[in-house]
Amino acid sequence: MSAKSVVMDGNTAAAHIAYRVNDVCAIFPITPSSTMAELTDTWSAQGVKNIWGQIPVIQQMQSEGGAAGALHGALQSGALTTTFTASQGLLLMLPNMYKIAGELTPCVFHVAARAIATQALSIFGDHSDVMSARMVGFAMLAATSVQEAHDLALVAQVATLESRLPVIFFFDGFRTSHEESKISLIPDEQIRSAIDDEQVRAHRARSLTPERPVIRGTAHNPDTFFQARESANPFYARMPDIVQGAMDRVGALTGRPYKLFRYSGHAEADRVVVVIGSAFEVLDETVAWLNSHDERVGVLHVALYRPWDAARFLAVLPSTVKRIAVLDRTKEVGAVGEPLYLDVVTTFAEAFAAGRVPAMPIIVGGRYGLSSKDFDPAMAKAVFDELKQSRPKHGFTVGITDDVTHTSLTVDASFDLEAQDVVRALFFGLGADGTVGANKNSTIILAADPDRYAQGYFVYDSKKSGSYTISHLRFGPRPIRAPYLLKSANFVGVHKFDFLYKLDALSAAAPGAIVLINSPYPADTVWDELPNEVQQQIIDKKLSVHVIDASSVASGLGLGSRVNTILQTCFFALSGVMPRDQAIEAIKRATERTYARKGKAIVQKNFAAIDSALANLHTVPVPAAVTSRRVRLRLVPDTAPAFVRDVTATILSLQGDTLPVSALPVDGTYPTGTARYEKRNIADQVPVWESDLCIQCGQCAIVCPHSVIRSKYYDESRLAGAPPAFKAVPINARGYPDSRFTLQVYVEDCTGCGVCVENCPAHSPDDASVKAINMKDRLQHLDAGRESIAFFETLPWADRTRVNFANVRGVQFLEPLFEFSGACAGCGETPYLKLLSQLFGDRLQIANATGCSSIYGANLPTTPWAANSEGRGPAWANSLFEDNAEFGLGYRLAIDSQLGQARALAEKLAARVGSDLVAAILGAPQLSESDFRVQRERIVALKTALAGATDADAKNLLLLADFLLRRSVWIVGGDGWAYDIDYGGLDHVLATGKDVNVLVLDTEVYSNTGGQASKATPLGASAKFAATGKTSPRKDLAMMAIAYGNVYVAQIAMGANNEQALVAMREAEAYRGTSIILAYSQCIAHGTDLRHGMKQAARAVASGYWPLFRFDPTMRARGMNPFRLDSPRPRIRLEEYRYNEVRFKSLVQTHPDSARRMLEQAQRALEERYRLYEDLASRDGSRFQPHWEDSSS
Amino acid sequence: MKLATRYLGLELAHPIVASASPLTSTLDGMRRLEDAGASAVVMASLFEEQIRAEDTAYALLTEHGSNSQAEASSYFPELSDYNAGVSGHLETVRRASEALDIPVIASLNGTTAEGWLEHARNLEQAGASAIELNVYSVPIDPAVSGAEVERRTLEIVRHVRASVQIPISVKLAPYFTSLPHLAADLVRAGAGGLVLFNRFYAPDIDLKTLQMTRSLPLSTKAELPLSLVWIGLLSRRVACSLAASRGVETEVEVVKYLLAGADVVMTTSALLRRGPEHLGVMRDGLVRWLAENRFESVDAIRGLKDASRVADADAFLRANYVAALTDYVPGKLVQ
């Protein structure tokens, strides 16, 4: 069979091989490698077979550590086994990797190399992870491109089988793992013939079997361990030859030869750069250009990094080399240089000392590309230029401006190597408009021509709602070897008109480029709607501008915001990359391929969209002069803090790459509350308050996921100076005749989810469809909204000591200190966090597991956790995904320790500060808001009394005094964290009885990484890694916690019973032991319209699937039943809840029998579980497990 | 007692058929009906409009959030065997056709020409014994004439007839100006049977909320006369099978419809109210009535009282109309 050309990304290219040459895949999702694991699971579900005719077994594990353990066991038992990972995931595998290598066990770990969290987390690509694994004893093989991710995955497998050495096969996360590229696919027959079955049999023969029993994993004493450790040396010595042999073997089959060290450039080069990964392609292009301009340079790619073959390395370098720059995509703090640099220097030093090279070249090391920082030809040229310096800089950086330690090289940003016969297209889209999907299709369409090559790379916003996407596409007559972002595009698509006001979308437009704008304004009037700066760019660069109102066309066809196929058609028509008719046919074929599995209706709608595109496409007449008086929006107000104006705004304008080192904090400490300065204006419709219909119940405010609905009451006199549009009505509570009530909608921060409207219980007596809050056009309410908000913010928040914390109506008056996050519109998690911030925000300290809540909670540029007017608010930190429970427990240990010190000091200094004051402080009950207010005043008095003191005790107490106010510690994370990766840690924390509160935002899947099943995923739900429906029920974590007897446990669901959720959170916080709350959180991964998410949560409760309850050990201590069931018996059948969600409904289509069976099982299970809960609720208090409180009372 | 009945060319054990309802939407439900003694089942309708809506919702919900985030290119597993909406229904048809010994008649409600044809073909391939075309639409466009409505209905029947081999019947609304004319045309277009009549969702207004409400109340035997009259009028006048529907609560209504000329009698509401087992009760009641009245077969009573026995059907109707008026005594109804 001949090789087939296909477009795919690096993850798919590698997984394609990995799946075919393994029996078992042990998997766990982690960006950017998740796709590989997902694909293997999908293929397995589809029955795709490996080269031996078997369907590989795919096993999801609870963590990467678990995956490595399962893999180790599978290898020991004779299966060809692999895994896929990155970053922290690889780190969790390290202990097993030492074992696997030590036991000479062949396997390949496929790694999409990614940064490791240090001063901040980054999901993006560099080599920090693989370089942290270079000592484990695995061979390390690197790919530079998508094609190599495919080819070398096979080389790795061939080599590991022959050598018995395990291999880390890696490629650059995102840049290669996510780049769409046209590659030649190795036919299964060739894969089959590359693998030597004798070696497979040899592997199986070494496995554990009672038929030939052996023992492995023995423990050694000082007498033997060392020698045994050295015994495998010959295997490492042979490995380079074996890998080269595998390269030759695969090369002979595919026609694509590889070398352990690939040199490219001048045969008599005087300067060479050594590098690993995709940067080689950039350097290679640059080398060709420099050599064509009379320079003598070269680049050397290290494919096999471990074991390091010094002889081959030296052999491929021209003997003329005088200067070498070694580029590392990692940072090894405190070392002489980064890892690759050290290897190169050592190689030369040894060779020079041994006389194998005549002279020692000048060798410098530098860092580039951390966290997917773009590495382009201008930067490559800067490195070669640096080598020309008399004393080239060692330890340099390239791609940033280091104004602190001055490591950075100067880069000529105008240097560009784009070939003129390559079409370069840049698209600014919205996440929701389908631009990226269409562009992926475009690369496939264009690459279908055997003489055309395509590349697609996609950059995403870090927000989960209203997010932008930037697509970088190249199409050309030669294979595209340009793994860097477009700096010069000859086509620019602006798929949302607002972008022209927010971003410098045309800065990368090349002179004469074509610009396509999705514009609500027609061609003859749009010019005047453009900002001044954009008009200037259009005139200066002689851009050709075209508009189409794609949003209206899509909306009219029932496609919602999905303008993708319409604009894709326009792109093909305008760019001329293909004849129009041919292009339209191809787009339709691609559309059908994309959507056929989702029904004809959507295909037909897209066909209609494609057919109507060109009739609506118009060219804009461009005047000779700028006429607009509009200017681009200021991204943050002048009133914002300096950091926000200088740093945050720069990032918001997509100019973050220009920020120098000095602009950024040295230790990852950032100011909170920056989201309020970013007015995103992403909603088309926003809620508008009907004050005369409102019953002031607070139900809209409590469910708002983005804290854009706020309530205040205030004295009528404060209304003086209110703008005309400002709405105020008498508060409908007795005893406040002069008070007025205002419900303010923050129109610019709203995501338009509509959850508030659906949750509003009040409606017009004349028309039930008119509620007390209704969605209306944002633009029509924008100006009035801004004025009203400005006035609203001058009004005081309610005195917390006068607010009734016991009900939703009261809580609406508490200031939210979690606001305007980047979470999805309609997110089910964020209302809980907002409530947390309202209830305890000014004494709240949060440990947040990695996941959705850490991304919408703390991803730059702007973050939602905020401080109140007194400057107090939640202190927040994220440690890891796998340690959050322990991390939060650490807070409590430190707080208790310092509280103890503070109490001791206060007692010691009582005479100085007043014994009554100290007694009051130490005896404060600290239960109610009034208690906290008084305690704060006492602490101020204490500090005042100690002010200016110079003795150690006083200074220490001044510092520690704040611990005398009861700190509220919350450990927050999703179900992937709590049920899976940190379950052991969580269990331990629950067992400590320490005063921490755990909030599990339970979406029942790994939401952040794309909806993979967790142990919270319910029976019968289809999720990634459980495509045919999860066959086991969700873990009853609540009952497991209840089993301890002294843990406060609650299960809550906003939308079903907001009051119960509120009570549970307050009880948990008040409880002086460990608490855990499981919070039902609807999610886009459920496949339901989140506008109705709260109603769906109510159905979850009504069906009995998610019973509401509280287990309060303090009740037990008082002899009462601690278990209170807060929701009534199931009132609806489970299917009435489930079949509103794609995760359940899809299974009815794909596996109707098992769907029905699992539904019945789930129905029976929930009925039985409900009976159990009813039984618990009806016991008397003596029938619960006694615990320490009983014995101490 | 001979209960054997022929309907749409299908040989049935007796004339009582379970018509489309939630009971016939699942294999289990249909099994229960067969066990209860149904001679055939009409499966719950395949609604093209609903499938299109479900497909669109599925596509949009599974696309939501896709290709928007660096960490997640999608939020759902790729389901290559998700054949969107219709496949589950077809699977049920297939399984029911294999599992049941009685005929499984599919019911189809289309909205587009392609939908009618494609789904009819799919239902045939899935193993349906026949297809009942549920031509349900409320013409609200003033530009569409009655003739146009009839033309479209006939066109659907002609096209479906041309694309499938199995028998087809047409379930009609009662609101046609000249039903006998249309009936004859439908037979010429290829309908093997007519089902009289369809029932409609009943809109209402909730006076508390002033919102429109919608329901489909179960039928009662008060609905019998309309179908009874038309079965009686069309019996032996159109060359096709006749199925009577609406108001069949007990064997009494079954007998009446048979007397009026129905080949089969379809029932749903009574089964929903009383459970599938009620079908057997009705069949036993039919046997008992036949025995008590000394008929040896259902064929013996079929059409015994149809309008063809009256020389002038119009006069028959008019006479009934006049009789109804003259029999009316004020106050009688309120007793």
Model description:
The complex is a heterodimer of chains A (1193) and B (335). Chain A is 39% helix and 16% strand. In chain A, the strands form 7 sheets. Chain A has a 9-stranded mixed beta sheet, with helices on both faces. Chain A is globular. The mean pLDDT of chain A is 95. With 335 residues, chain B is α/β, with parallel strands linked by helices. Chain B has one domain (5-308): Alpha-Beta Barrel (TIM Barrel), CATH 3.20.20.70. Chain B contains 12 helices and 13 strands. In chain B, the strands form 3 sheets. In chain B, strands 3, 4, 5, 6, 7, 8, 9, 12 and 13 form a 9-stranded parallel beta sheet that branches. In chain B, strand 1 (5-7) and strand 2 (10-12) form a beta hairpin. Chain B is globular, with a radius of gyration of 22 Å. Classes of the chains: A alpha/beta (1193), B alpha/beta (335). The interface between A and B is large, with 70 and 42 residues.
